[in-house]
Structure formats: C-alpha cells, structure tokens
Amino acid sequence: MAFLIVSIFPKLFVIDMFFFIMGKILGVIGGGQLGMMLTEAASNMKSEISNVIVLDPTINCPASKVGAEQIVADFKDASAIKELAEKCDVITYEIESGDSQVLKSLEETCEINPSPETLETIQDKLIQKKFLTKNCIPVAEFREITSREELESKINEFGLPVLLKTRTGAYDGRGNFKISALDQVPEALQVFEGQSLMVEKFVDFKMEVSVIASRSTSGEIRTYPLVENIHKDNILNMTIAPARVNETISKNAEEIAHKTMEVLHGAGVFGIEMFVTINDQILINEIAPRVHNSGHHTLQSSKTSQFEQHLRAILGLELGSTELVHNTIMYNILGPKDFTGIYKPPSIDLENTFLKMYGKMESKPQRKIGHVNLVDKNNLGMENLLERVNILSDSIKIIPA
Ligand code: ATP
Ligand code: MG
Fold it and tell me: Half-sphere exposure (CA, 13 Å, Cβ side) for 77?
C-alpha cells in the first residue's frame, strides 16, 4: 500500500512531502504449518509485506502463533473469504480446497495468486490430468468413472491392479482405493459412494520424487533440484535432497516441471509429485498449487527457502536462487497412532540438525506436528545422513504432557 504523507511545518512554511511505501497485507487461506512458515518468511520481508492475515477454523492455529492475525472461520466460508479479500492486498493459500468460485468473484477486490482458475484446474484430479495430457505432459493412464460398468471395462483395458481415486478433496492417500482383484469393485465403489471418481492404471514405480517449482507473476520460472520422497502408510515419511537418481532422470524431471509451469500460468510455488517408473520414465502423479511438504528441506539446504520463494513469486519480485547448498534429509514428525491429546514437544540438540515444531496443541494419530532437517554441512555423504536419520527417528518419542 502506498501512502502519500503531506506534513506542514508552520514555522518554516514548508510543505514536506514524504512518500513512503508500506508493505502489502498478505492474506493466506489456511493457517497450519505451511501458513506458519509463510508467515515467518514474510516477517523477514517487512518492506514488502507489512502484515499477514490467515483464515483458519482452529483458534490459535500455528500461523497465529508466529504473528499472523487470524480470521477464525471455515476455509470455505464465503463471507470470511470476502472479509479476508477486503482486508488484504494479495491472497494466497496453503491448502488447495479453497472455494475457487468464491475466489473468482473476489478477483477484482484483491489480487489472488495462484489464480482461482489455476486452482480450479488443479483441485479436481480428473481436470488436472486432462489438462496435463492435453499439454503433452506424461501421466499414468486414467479415465473418469461414473458407473460400475465403466470401472469394470477400464480394468479390462488397463489390467489389474488399478487405483480408484476421488477427484477432489483427497489427502494422505485417503481418496485412493487399490483394486487388485475384480471382486473388490463393489467394495471400492461403496467406500466412495456419492463422490466423483476416476481410475488410474497402477504405476510400477521405483521411486517417488518431486520438484518444487516456482513461477512469478512476471513469468520467471525456477525449479529446485529433484528430491526423493519416501512414504509410510501413504504419508510422507522423509524427503531426501537431492534424489538418488542419475543426471538424465533428474534433468528430465526438472524439464517436465518447467514445462508444467509454462503451461499452467500459475504464480507461486507448486509441489509437483512424480513417479520414476522401472523404465526410468517420469510421470506426474499430482500437482499441489502451494508450498509442499517435500520442500521443507529448503529451509536449511538451499539459498532460498520455498516459503520466501512463494512470496517472491506472488509479489512479482525476482525469484531467489534454487541452488541446493547442502545435501539434506527432511524427516516428518507424526503423532503416534495410539495417542490423542496434549503432548510434550520433543527437543533435539545435535549438530546440523534443525527441529521445527508446528505449535499444534494436540497430537492426533498420524498428524504432522513437526519436522527435522538433517543437513550434511560436513560433506559426509548421503549414507551418513541416512544413518543419522535412522538413529534420530528411533529416538523421537511423542509422549503426553
Ligand atoms: P497426498 O498423499 O500427497 O496428500 P493424495 O491423497 O491426493 O495426496 P495421491 O498423491 O494421488 O494422493 O496418492 C497417494 C500415494 O498413492 C502416492 O504418493 C503414491 O504412493 C500412490 N499412488 C498414487 N497414484 C498411483 C498410481 N497411479 N500408481 C501407483 N501408486 C499410486
Ligand atoms: Mg500426493
């Protein structure tokens, strides 16, 4: 927001005119850990961003604990989103489930990045995959499913196993059902009854990888080096930066990410999840229109964190360097499966090991409550990092407070 201040000093009869530029007010839909780390990045960019307001239903959400103002409301609450747009100069999101129709109606009031149109393309996995295919970007074979007959016919065509997926609102694999035998079809359809669905050929992948890509409002594109993602129970367990693949694969993946950003036209950071198939082919699994869990390593490993990069991108600033300075493993801290309640935050006092807790009051089963970045500042190699992460993961215990 730019203000013209005219001050009159009667003694000197001089009109002093001061222009001073205050930073913009940033609105974020979602105030969880991603909103929290965006707020922290914004606090280091005071001349560009003077204030952060998040919209989140949880009182004392993580972002509010690091200085963001909070509107307490559901992510899809149209009047709360409108209030956010009225109070802010630019809106972004840390979750992809915002109401793109409501956001579209507010584009004249407030700048929104990535645009609601980009959000709309990504929110629905079927529309997203059709868009990628249309632009010659490789994905697993897929088809819309509206009936049992259609599903059975696609299973015939693709062969088993297949993955039945809900088109919207999925996370941590909860919208996926792997069908390995024809007699599972009724059960799979029943689990997702009433939801719009698609089916995908099951990819025999040898590795899951991702690229954190950014595109600024001015069209500049930068991608971070390819990272490797290891999941447990469908939830990201750790990210290894860089991915343990040869140069051809990482170059290919980064080129696909670059091309995706060119056609998508979104502004901001995007997490592009991919498979490396057993034939070393790269297929995009899905795109997240936001900062991404597999980019948390950048907080310590890279010249520019993904959070700062996102802010640079949506504000139209020059993008920062994406160079990976140190090999790093990011390990997610999840709530134990058998415990819900207030917990004692762990502490870690180890060299080149950076613990980040998200300030969530309660631990819930498999809930992400923090992460640790293990950084190879002494160049001891990936094996050493893997040993360190194994020892560390065994020692982190989340216990009741
Ligand atoms: P997230 O887990 O990122 O929150 P999500 O719930 O939307 O996302 P996906 O990313 O579509 O789910 O799938 C979750 C996991 O399921 C993937 O990380 C991958 O391990 C597996 N998966 C998804 N699609 C396929 C496929 N076509 N073939 C084989 N495995 C797949
Ligand atoms: Mg995924």
Answer: 14
Which ligand gives the minimal distance to the CA of 236?
A: 1
**In the predicted structure, residue 18 carries a pLDDT above the cut 70:** no
pLDDT of 268 higher than 60: yes
For the chain, the residue count is: 401
357 has which bridge partners?
A: 370
User: What's the pTM value of the predicted model, to 2 decimals?
Assistant: 0.94
Contacts 24+ apart (CB under 8 A), 184-187: 185/148, 185/151, 185/152, 185/155, 186/148
Residue of 36, 27, 30, 25 whose CA lies nearest to 296: 36
Under DSSP, is residue 11 helix (H, G, I), strand (E, B) or coil?
coil
**Rg value, the chain, Cα:** 23
Looking at ligand 1, which residue's alpha carbon is closest to its atom 16? 173
Which of 346, 339, 348, 345 is CA-nearest to residue 361? 345
Output the CA 171–ligand 2 centroid distance in Å: 7
CB–CB of 346/355 below 8 Å?
A: yes
Structure tokens at 333: 């801290």
Residue 28 host element (H or E): strand 24-29
Ordered domains of the chain (ranges, CATH): 2-112 (3.40.50.20), 141-201 (3.30.1490.20), 205-400 (3.30.470.20)
Q: Is the peptide bond prior to 114 cis by the omega test (within 30 degrees of 0)?
A: yes
pLDDT score at 21: 60
Probe residue for ligand 1, chosen from 285, 286, 287 as the CB with the greatest number of ligand atoms within 8 Å: 285
- Using DSSP's 3-state secondary structure scheme, residue 56 falls into strand
Phi/psi for 178 (5° steps) reads -85, 120
Q: How far is the CA of 275 from the centre of ligand 2 (A)?
A: 11
Express each pLDDT in 278-311 by its tens digit.
Answer: 999 999 999 999 999 999 999 999 999 999 999 9
Burial 122-152, CB ≥16 within 10 A → b, else e? bbbbbbbbbbbeeeebebbbbbebeeeeebe
**27 by DSSP, 3-state: which?**
strand
SS3 115: coil
